[in-house]
Specification:
Radius of gyration: 26 Å
CATH superfamily of the largest domain: nicotinate phosphoribosyltransferase
Largest sheet: 7 strands, antiparallel
CATH class of the largest domain: Alpha Beta
Domain Nicotinate phosphoribosyltransferase N-terminal: 16-146
CATH architecture of the largest domain: Alpha-Beta Barrel
Strand content: 15-25%
Pathway: Cofactor biosynthesis; NAD(+) biosynthesis; nicotinate D-ribonucleotide from nicotinate: step 1/1
Domain Nicotinate/nicotinamide phosphoribosyltransferase: 168-348
Bound molecules: adenosine-5'-triphosphate, 1-O-pyrophosphono-5-O-phosphono-alpha-D-ribofuranose, nicotinic acid
Protein name: Nicotinate phosphoribosyltransferase
Number of strands: 21
EC number: 6.3.4.21
Length: 495
C-alpha cells in the first residue's frame, strides 16, 4: 500500500514533474561533458514552519517511488523534442534525447527516515551521484518533501494541543487540489492525526477513515429527530449526530431522545458533533445534558476552522470536547502555506578525480549561506534519549578527537562534546547506485517515530509561542573551513 504511493496518480510517469531549467541545465551539462562529474546536493530548510521550534520530516516514501521510476518514456521524450526556442529551433537535439532515454538513475541517496524531527539547516536528504542526475531531481524532491514536511509538522502541533484526544482530518474539500488533499491526508496521519475523512487516502495508504454526517442530511428530513433516527437505522453502532443545523442545544436534546430509542434496541449513540457557535460553552452545556440523561460515554466532536492555538484556548476555557475534526487550517497549512526547503550543491569531484571541491552559495545574510561538504547530522542524546544538540559534519574529512560544536550564526557560541557522548546519525542509506537498499518503514512505523521523536523534545522546543531554539551547530573544522571559503569567495567577488 505504502510502497508506491505516487505511481499512476496522474500520469504514467512523473519524470517530467520538474522545472524546465532542470532539463536545460541537464542538456548544458551533457553538452559540456559534465554529466557524470560526481556531485553532492543537500535538501534542507532554513527555518522551521509556523514560527515553531522543529519540523517533522515527511515525503521520503514519495521520493523513493519517484526515483525508482525515473525513466523517460517515448511520450516524455517526444514532448521534450517538441519544445522550441525563441528562433524556432528545437530546444533539445535528438542525441541528447537519446541520452535521456538510456539514462538510468544511479545516485546514492541518504535521508532522515520519515517522522524524524528535523531542525534548520540539517539535510533531510543528501544526494550523491552524476551531476546531471542529481540536479535533474531537485524540483520533484522539493515539491514532495516541502509540502508533506509542512503538513506533518502542522499535524504534530495539533496533536500536541489535543493531547490524548482523538483528532480527525477533514480537509479534502479545502485542500490544494486532489494531490494536495491526498498527500496532506498522508502527512497529517504521519504527523499524528488518528484518521481521515478522505476515502482515497484510506485506500491508498491504509489510513483509518472516519466521519459523521453533513447538515444536508438533517435538512433532507422533516425534522432533526427524523434525520437522527434514520441515520441510526443505517449505522446503529456508528452514529455521530451533527446537532447544530437549527439550534445546537435543542439538537442535543433531539440526539438524546434518539439515543434513548437506540438504547432500547440494544445500541449506543457514538457521539454528537458541534460545528458552530461558542464551542467551549456549547460543549460544556452539551456534556451536562448528555450526562444528566445517562449518556456520559457519548463523545463530543467539534469542528469549525480549528487549529492548534484554538484547541489550546478551548481547553483552557474548560471545553468538554473529546474529538477534534480539523480541515482547512491543517491541510492548507493556513498560517504558513509553504515550507522554504532548498536543494543546494555542496561538493563536486575535482576534474582530475583527486578529491572534492566543496562548494558554497553566498548570501548577504549568513543564515542563507549554504554549508559545504558531504554532510551527516549527528544527534547527541542524554541517557533518557532526549536530544541535546545536533552537529553537522563533513564526512569527507577526518573528525578531530575532541569535537566542538559551533553555532553557525554566532561563532562565539560553542560547546564541547563530552567524549563517548551517545549519539545517532540521522541520514540513513536509502539508495545505493540508484537501487533502493531495502524496504522503507511503513506509514505506521513512520507515524510512531514522529510521535516518539516529538515527545522526546524538551517542552521549551515544542511550545507554540517563542519556542527555544534547539542547538544545531557545525563541527568546528567544518565551521572553520566554511568561514575560510566565505572569506575567499567574498574576496574573489570584489577582485
Ligand atoms: N470559545 C471559543 N473561543 C475561541 N474561539 C472559538 C470559540 N468557539 C468557537 N470558536 C471559533 O471561532 C470561529 C468562529 O466561529 P462561529 O461559529 O462564531 O462563526 P462561524 O464559523 O461563522 O459559524 P457558522 O458556521 O455558524 O457560520 C471558529 O474558528 C470557531 O472555531
Ligand atoms: O472547518 P474545517 O476545519 O475546514 O473543517 C471541515 C468543515 O467542513 C465541513 O463543513 P463545510 O465547510 O463544508 O461547511 P460549513 O463551514 O458551512 O459548515 C465541516 O462541517 C467543517 O466545518
Ligand atoms: O465527517 C465529517 O464530519 C466531515 C467530513 C468532512 C468535512 N467535514 C466534516
Amino acid at each position: 500500500m505504502n510502497s508506491a504511493p505516487l505511481s499512476g496518480l496522474y500520469a504514467p510517469s512523473l519524470s517530467l514533474l520538474t522545472d524546465l531549467y532542470q532539463v536545460t541545465m541537464a542538456y548544458g551539462y551533457w553538452q559540456q561533458g559534465l554529466q557524470d562529474r560526481e556531485a553532492v546536493f543537500h535538501l534542507y530548510f532554513r527555518r522551521p514552519p509556523f514560527q515553531g521550534g522543529y519540523a517533522v520530516a515527511a515525503g521520503l516514501a514519495f521520493v523513493a517511488d519517484y526515483l525508482q521510476n525515473l525513466t523517460f518514456s517515448d511520450d516524455d521524450l517526444a514532448y521534450l523534442g517538441s519544445l522550441r526556442g525563441t528562433k524556432g529551433g528545437a530546444m533539445f537535439p535528438p542525441d541528447f534525447l537519446a541520452y535521456l532515454k538510456e539514462m538510468t538513475f544511479s545516485c546514492d541517496v541518504d535521508a532522515m527516515p520519515e517522522g524524524t524531527v528535523a531542525f534548520a539547516n540539517e539535510p533531510l536528504i543528501r544526494v550523491r551521484g552524476p551531476l546531471l542526475q542529481a540536479q535533474l531531481i531537485e524540483t520533484a524532491l522539493l515539491t514532495l518533501v516541502n509540502f508533506q514536511t509542512l503538513i506533518a509538522t502542522k499535524a504534530a502541533r495539533i496533536r500536541e494541543a489535543a493531547g490524548a484526544d482523538t483528532v480527525l482530518e477533514f480537509g479534502l474539500r479545502r485542500a490544494q487540489g486532489p494531490d494536495g488533499g491526498l498527500s496532506a491526508s498522508r502527512a497529517a496521519y504521519l504527523g499524528g492525526v488518528d484518521a481521515t475523512s478522505n476515502v482515497l487516502a484510506g485506500q491508498r495508504f491504509g489510513i483509518p477513515v472516519k466521519g459523521t454526517h453533513a447538515h444536508s442530511w438533517v435538512m433532507a428530513f422533516e425534522d432533526e429527530e427524523a434525520a437522527f433516527t434514520a441515520y441510526a437505522q443505517a449505522f446503529p453502532d456508528d452514529s455521530v449526530f451533527l446537532v447544530d443545523t437549527y439550534d445546537t442545544l435543542e439538537g442535543v436534546r433531539h440526539a438524546i431522545k434518539v439515543a434513548r430509542a437506540m438504547r432500547a434496541q440494544g445500541h449506543e449513540l457514538g457521539g454528537i458533533r458541534l460545528d458552530s457557535g461558542d464551542l467551549a460553552y456549547l460543549s460544556r452545556e452539551a456534556r451536562e445534558l448528555l450526562n444528566e440523561a445517562g449518556f456520559p460515554q457519548v463523545r463530543i466532536v467539534a469542528s469549525n476552522d480549528l487549529e492548534e492555538n484554538l484547541i489550546t484556548s478551548l481547553k483552557l476555557q474548560g471545553a468538554k470536547i473529546d474529538t477534534w475534526g480539523i480541515g482547512t487550517q491543517l491541510v492548507t497549512a493556513y498560517n504558513q502555506p509553504a515550507l522554504g526547503g532548498v536543494y543546494k550543491l555542496a561538493a563536486l569531484r575535482k576534474p582530475d578525480d583527486s578529491g572534492w571541491d566543496f562548494t558554497i552559495k553566498l548570501s548577504e545574510q549568513l543564515a542563507k549561506t549554504s554549508i559545504p561538504g558531504i554532510l551527516q547530522v549527528r544527534r547527541y542524546e542524554n541517557e533518557q534519549g532526549q536530544p541535546r544538540a545536533d552537529m553537522l559534519y563533513n564526512t569527507a574529512e577526518p573528525l578531530p578527537e575532541q569535537l566542538t560544536i559551533v553555532d553557525p550564526l554566532d561563532a562565539t557560541r560553542r560547546r564541547n562534546v563530552r567524549p563517548h557522548a551517545p549519539f545517532r546519525e540521522l541520514l540513513e542509506p536509502v539508495f545505493r547506485r540508484g537501487r533502493l537498499v531495502g524496504p522503507l518503514p511503513t506509514l505506521e512505523e513512520s507515524r510512531a517515530r514522529a510521535h516518539r521523536e516529538v515527545l522526546s523534545l524538551d517542552t521549551s522546543v515544542r511550545r507554540f509561542l517563542n519556542p527555544h531554539t534547539y542547538p544545531v551547530g557545525l563541527e568546528e573544522s567544518l565551521h572553520d573551513y566554511r568561514t575560510k571559503l566565505i572569506v575567499e569567495k567574498r574576496a574573489g567577488r570584489r577582485a
